[in-house]
Amino acid sequence: MKTLHNKLRKKYNHLKRSYLPSSEKPKRLIIDKAKWLNNADSPVMLMIDDFTNAWHSRNSGGSWDIGGDWGGGLDKEGSAFSFLEENLLKDFPEVKVTFFTVAGKISQYTFAVPFTFSESLNHSDESRAFFRKLHEDEKSEIAYHGYNHGAPGEKTVNFMQEWKGFRSVDEACEQTEKGKEIFKDVFGEYPRGGKYGGWEYNEFADASIARSGFLWWCRDWMPRDISDSISDSYYEPQFFGGSFVVALPSTVHGYLWDKGQIERLLEKQQIISIEEHIAPVRPDGLIQTPNVIDDIDELKSLFNYLRNKKVWYATGTEIAKYFIAYSFTTIHDIEHDRFKIKYDGHVREPMLTVIVDCRSFCEDNKKPAEKVILPDGKKIEDFAYLDNRRHIIRVNIPVQNGPYQIQ
Ligand SMILES: [Zn+2]
Fold first, then answer.
1. Ligand 1 centroid to 137 CA: how many Å?
2. Are 312 and 325 in contact (CB under 8 A)?
3. 395 alpha carbon to ligand 1 midpoint, in Å?
């Protein structure tokens, strides 16, 4: 009786053990898509609005007032751009700027007072060269902010913002086409993204943005709330329009930001998109806020605060492409040394960061993964090991359809 009992117990323990979690190696690769490039907590996008070929002098002098350059001063001494470079970008070389630029002559606010100087981006060889150089610099992007920003009124309150005033989708597209052609003339390509002037738009606007071929757009000013009165997902990027335009949320005020807001965005892995304007001085006598000149100290302390955070400095187009890569990929048929991707996004080969636990493969070979072979046969050998045994890797892959193999 005792022997039988022992036998049974042995069998029972054996059975029990085989259902317990074991420290054996996984049978397949374990793959996670990172929400943002390099597995950053948040992308950081500095947005500077109304940067365009114009400047203003209150007494109609031959040069702009202090704070009166909107970009027309190009990179000359005392220009808005040189202020930005000397007072912020030089000290924070990691920061990338997305400029929102009016393509044609920016409109005055009131009939009575025009800008002292206002021209289209392609007005002169000098202006073309200046804006083009900025766009080609990998640290900045020139995005679209309208053909003229709107139409003047008797008073400032009667100024009609550009996308608020169109009477049909056709009319919006026709005017946007004119602005796009100026972009093509200056930059050799159409703008990829943009922003509504004054955050104002009517029922024809969104459809016109999709039809005009934009990849991404800033529709709404939506500073990140931390009182939990609005659900978190409100602040995520979204798709809109028939062509899946990426709507990027605008979450942080360059002057009124606070640490709680930044921490919440990091915790939720949401975009830190910082709203600013290029210049304080307006022809109608009001001060444009927020603006980089008055807010320079707050901007410096914001970028200082971000220095030891896990962030990814990026332009609007880079963020939109990553969001498309993340949203339109399915990882499937995962085996011990390979996996497949199905991708049906509207951007060719966007980059995606994946974290791959390769133990199923590495422990057989007794050596770490050394390369990832893409569906098109190209190799990626540049990646980070995330653990001491070099079994878990973080790798940026161009998204293609088909098998990826670990070697
Ligand atoms: Zn604007």
1. 23
2. no
3. 38
Ligand 1 centroid to Cα of residue 99, in Å, is: 10
The verdict on 167 and 287 lying in the same domain is yes
**Overall pTM surpassing 0.85 (yes/no):** yes
Q: Is residue 17 domain-resident? A: no
In a domain, 13, yes or no: no
What is the total count of domains within the chain?
2
Q: Mark whether 304 and 216 lie in a shared domain.
A: yes
C-alpha span between 132 and 229 (Å, rounded): 43
Q: Tell me: the pLDDT tens digits for 290-340?
A: 999 999 999 999 999 999 999 999 999 999 999 999 999 999 999 999 999
Reported as a single tens digit per residue, the pLDDT across 160-181 is 999 999 999 999 999 999 999 9
- Those residues whose beta carbon sits under 5 angstroms from the ion ligand 1 are 49-50, 197
H-run or E-run covering 321? helix 316-327
Residue 6: inside a domain, yes or no? no
Three-state secondary structure call for residue 77:
coil
- Examine the domain organization and report whether 71 and 189 are in the same domain: yes
What separation in Å is there between the alpha carbon of 219 and the centre of ligand 1?
Answer: 12
